[in-house]
Amino acid sequence: MRTRLSILTWPEPKGGPHRAICHYCDTVHVADPIAEGSRANCVLCGATLFQNRPASLVRVTSFSLTALLLMIVVHTAPFVDMDAAGLRTELTLPGAARALIDEGTPLVGLGVALFTIITPLILAGGLVYVCAPLIFGRLAPGAMFVTRWMSRSEPWNMIEVFLLGVLVSLLKLGKVADLHFGIGFWAFAGLMVCMAAAVAAIDKRELWDRLEVAKGQ
Q1: Global pTM value
Q2: What's the average model confidence in pLDDT over 162-186?
Q3: CA of 27: how far to CAs of 16, 21, 33, 99, in Å?
Q4: How many CB atoms lie within 10 A of CB 120?
Q5: What's the CA gap between 155 and 108, in Å, rounded?
Q6: Counting beta carbons within 10 angstroms of the beta carbon of residue 194, is it exposed (0 to 12), middle (13 to 18) or buried (19 or more)?
Q7: CB of 156 within 8 A of CB of 140?
């Protein structure tokens, strides 16, 4: 029964009353529990305060695990194949970052590695580490610390920006070389979708409430 409640309900921490502040008009509200699948809106401006998303812990864990599996493909499989004047080149995502560093643009190369490899790995791995035990109402060791670092790393997860930049570059390179998208490219596109879905699967307020409740048990 404990597992079922952890999956289906948003537990309310002890103490109270709990309050929520609208980020648009700064109106203070009493944050009463809401039904699964519904949202709480500001009484003044109508902005969304928080949402109780269906099966949030299961969804965020599933999408994050899928993202971690896709990262293996992204980091090992060819991202794009280029054929120019008989010279064929296969490029992987880590290889692109290393090539940028070797070609005299270390800041760009390190930026690619940080924002498209390291940060998504921290975010997806942290979500699995924190949310998977919460399905069973348990708190992983250091879960509070990991959640804080996930919140800090989330704005630096820029895989969609990198993908857009790659598409623009490939459109230009397509005029001088034959290009073929590799398995790594399609895995990267799937990774972008899974990361977005994982982050959107659970409200931050719900995550912190679940952590507080699990900590007190």
Answers
A1: 0.79
A2: 73
A3: 18, 6, 18, 51
A4: 24
A5: 18
A6: buried
A7: no
